[in-house]
Each structure stands twice: as structure tokens, then as C-alpha cells.
Amino acid sequence: MMFFDNNPTTSPKVHQEFEKIILNAKKLSNELGSNFHFVYLPEYSRYKLKEDYDESTSIEVKKIIKKLNINYIDIHEGVFLKEENPLDLFPFGLNGHYNILGFQKISKYIFDKTR
């Protein structure tokens, strides 16, 4: 995720900026009478690296979103954890965007969570 890194000297400032951006998006959404949802889309390395994956960034993002009382849609929990092999939702099991099946499952999950 481009807003975060694991460098302890920059992370607090970057986290504060991320929080400000998300809060501004929530305010704008409220002003427009819209529902604001934050959708967490997991990256390929989360499933390729498995137990070696550092999920501290996703944990920090989730904390910020929950703190701001924003609807959080977790695609990792709602879609990928239900797959026998989550890499099947990537083209040929390789790094990149999700494949057709991946996008179908993700869009159905988001639709179900937002209606």
C-alpha cells in the first residue's frame, strides 16, 4: 500500500495523513448524502508469502477505518479466506490484478454487503 511503510520514523506521519484523507472523503460523502465504504483489496503477496506476509499495514488501516466509524468491507475475510487456493483468483496464479473469477467473487461480495 503506497500510504504506508514499515519505517518507524515515517509511519506515524504517513498514518496521520492517511487518516486525514479518509476523514475528508467521509465528510464529502456525508455532504453529498452518500454511503461511504472502505473496501480492503488484498495483494498477491499476502497469499504467495502466506505466513511470511507482514500484515501490519492492513491491521493499521483497519484500525484507522474502524476508529473513524467507516463501513469496512474486508475482501480478504469475505472472499479469499473462503477459497481453498486464493491464488486461483489471480491470472494463472501469478502476480497482477485479479482474474475474471476473482473480480466476479469480489464484486458479488461488495454488492451483497452494500445493498
What does this structure look like?
This protein has 115 residues and is mostly helical. It has helices spanning 11-31, 44-48, 56-67, 75-78, 100-114, and strands at residues 37-40, 71-74. The longest helix has 21 residues, at 11-31. The model has no long low-confidence stretch (mean pLDDT 90).
Task: Give the helix/strand layout.
Elements: H1 11-31, E1 37-40, H2 44-48, H3 56-67, E2 71-74, H4 75-78, H5 100-114
Parallel strand pairs: 1-2
Strand order of the largest sheet: 1-2
Number of helices: 5
Shape: globular
Number of strands: 2
The radius of gyration is: 15 Å
Structural class: mainly alpha
Oligomer: single chain
Main beta-sheet annotation: 2 strands, parallel
- Mean pLDDT across residues: 90
Low-pLDDT segments, ≥5 res: none
End-to-end Cα distance, whole Å, is 28 Å
Helix content: 40-55%
* Helix/strand order, N-terminal first: HEHHEHH
Beta-strand proportion: 5-15%
Quick structural overview:
With 115 residues, this protein is mainly alpha-helical.
Features:
7% strand, globular, 115 residues, 5 helices, mainly alpha
